[in-house]
Design goal:
By secondary structure, this protein is α/β, with parallel strands linked by helices. The strands form four sheets. Strands 1, 2, 3, 4, 5, 6 and 17 form a seven-stranded mixed beta sheet that branches. The chain has a five-stranded parallel beta sheet with strand order 8-15-9-10-11. It has two domains: 177 residues, FAD/NAD(P)-binding domain (3-Layer(bba) Sandwich), CATH 3.50.50; 105 residues, FAD/NAD(P)-binding domain (3-Layer(bba) Sandwich). The protein has six helices and 17 strands.
Length: 302
Amino acid sequence: MYDIIVIGAGPAGMTAAIYARRAAKTVLVLEAVTFGGQIINTPDIENYPVEAHISGFDFSNKVYEQAKGLGAEFVFEKAVEIRPGDGFKTVVTPKNSYQGRAVILATGSENRKLGLEDEQRLTGKGVSYCATCDGNFYRNKVVAVVGGGNTALEDALYLADLAKQVYLIHRRDAFRGDDTNAARLKERENVEIVYNSNVTKLIAEKRLKAIEVTNKLDGSVRTIELNGLFVAVGRVPENQNFAEWVKLDEAGYVVAGEDCHTTAEGIFVAGDNRVKALRQLVTATADGAMAATEAVKYVNSL
């Protein structure tokens, strides 16, 4: 029996483990793959307080060692189910089951991919899913953004202040995002909007060099030479295994406010898998601290 079981060992989950251990609670962290989450693939983090430049791998190692050093237990198994009990929850994996008085869901969310050959290999080598994280690496260079929602429009506006040229590629002839942002983009001289088109091929050697863009209406193919491609076609939260117990919104994110309480007693949420306005490293760690603090209060009340 653990006081708190944390599901997910990204920045939010590991921060939650640190705060829970500092409150002298027993903590189990369950992780399906490896600690670190998405940030582990980021070559250079420069927007996190204290560390001006640190790789995602080094950052994740430091947080992991800190949590381990404080006594958090890590088990690398995928949580597939939560079974509520009387004063405790049972978290089930394909191999074992674990009991905890409180549970923190820190499963994160995954960037929706384009599904192109070499997309994974080129992530961090010209392909990015976060303009605010990586945009500064492309100052005075040529980039493209794929998508038509608010994230894509905001990414293109952000990059237009940094890059020499920005292509915004959208599969439809109208944007799903705000009209105001779309109008602002159309006024930028260094932004070209490519409508009714999909990115159909990544051209690269060691790094991304160009993309092929196919027009959906006439089938014509255009090659665009560039330095970076920013994919903003949505995210996929990792919450479906727990939808029976916590309320999700239409996109699959856990419904919770800044206090990280879910609709289920004793189950909390932290990080990119909850409903929130900003999904960044700093907000993930903040969620971890809040969720752990609330979970500790809950355990103390039992």
